[in-house]
TrEMBL record:
Catalytic activity field: di-trans,octa-cis-undecaprenyl diphosphate + H2O = di-trans,octa-cis-undecaprenyl phosphate + phosphate + H(+)
The protein's name in its UniProt record: undecaprenyl-diphosphate phosphatase
Taxonomic source organism: Marinomonas piezotolerans
Superkingdom, natural source: Bacteria
Enzyme Commission code(s) on record: 3.6.1.27
Membrane topology: Multi-pass membrane protein
SUPFAM superfamilies in UniProt: Acid phosphatase/Vanadium-dependent haloperoxidase
Length: 171
């Protein structure tokens, strides 16, 4: 448990360091837009577009892989029950209302990295753009005050692993 306490303390220090360096209004507005770009319904729309374009196998991979990612995400979220920054830090209020109670891992970041991995497999020339977007999603969740840095790092890892598994099993 001492290791987890040390990680948490480092996470809180990093969180405060990032919060002190952002230009609040502009970065908060940009973070909201970037964060919304990683909302789940857009992934469903992407799968429908692939289906309509005749790529039913891609749509199925997205659906099955994302379902696995969501199940693991929920297990981790309910298992760790890590409170969000605004619930732990006395002197902090987040800039948005989170969709659920717990912080670890970041679902937005996990979904973004899942999509980035999958779409990069099909369209490699977009890899840099997709992964840059994914990193910005993770950073936006920190800047909006709803996640600690390790929440987003673990979200990125979860999404990438689930996509790799989907490709390994389904393709």
């Amino acid at each position: 448990m001492n290791l987890l306490t040390n990680i948490h303390n480092l996470d809180v220090l990093t969180f405060y360091w990032l919060m002190a360096r952002k230009h609040r209004q502009l970065l908060t507005r940009l973070s909201r837009i970037i964060s919304m770009s990683a909302d789940g319904p857009l992934y469903v729309l992407l799968a429908i577009v692939f289906w309509l374009m005749g790529h039913q196998d891609w749509a199925w991979l997205l659906a099955v892989g994302f379902a696995i990612e969501r199940i693991l995400y929920l297990i981790l979220k309910k298992g760790f029950k890590r409170n969000r920054p605004a619930d732990i830090l006395d002197d902090f209020t987040s800039f948005i209302r989170p969709s659920d109670q717990f912080s670890f891992p970041s679902g937005h970041t996990s979904g973004a990295f899942f999509i980035a991995y999958c779409v990069s497999e099909w369209f490699p020339s977009f890899s840099i753009s997709l992964y840059s977007w994914s990193v910005m999603v993770g950073m936006s969740r920190i800047f909006l005050g709803v996640h600690f840095p390790t929440d987003t790092v673990m979200g990125a890892l979860l999404g990438s692993i689930c996509a790799a598994l989907a490709f390994g099993v389904l393709v």
